[in-house]
Amino acid sequence: MTSVPIVETRGLVKRYDDQLAVAGIDLVVGPGEIYGLVGPNGAGKTTTMKILATLLAPTSGEAFVTGIPVAADPIEVRRRIGYMPDFYGVYDDLRVWEYLDFFARCYEVPARRRPAMIGELLEIVGLTDKRDAYVEALSRGMRQRLCLAHTLVHDPALLILDEPASGLDPRARVEMREILRELRGMGKTILVSSHILPELGEMCTGVAIIDHGRVLRAGSIQEIERSLRASALLRIDIVGDDAALTAAADWLGTDQRISDVLRVQGSDGAARLEAAFDGTPADQAMLLRGMIEAGHTVASFTQATSDLEEIFLKVTGQAVEEEAA
Amino acid sequence: MTAAPAILGTPRRSAPREFIAAVATIMIKELRSRMRGRRAFILLTIYLGLLALIAYGVYLITAPNVDNGFNGSANASALVGQAIFMTLSIFQLILICFIAPAATAGQISLEREKQTLDLLISTPMRPGAIVIGKLAAALAYVVLMIVAAVPITAIVLMYGGATVGDIVRQQVVLLAVALGLGAVGLFYSALLKRTQAATVLTYITVLALTLGTAAIFTFWTIFANQDNGGFGIVQGERAPEQLLYVNPGVAMLDVISNTESDPFGGLTRLLAEMRGEAIDLPFEPGIDGGGAVECDALGCRPVGGVDAPAEVAGAATGYWWTRVSLTFVGLAIILTIASMRLVVPAGMRGNPFRRSRRFAVAGGLPEVGTIDDLTINDVQGEER
Question: Which of the listed residues A202, A219, A236 is the one where a domain comes to its end?
Answer without folding.
Answer: A219
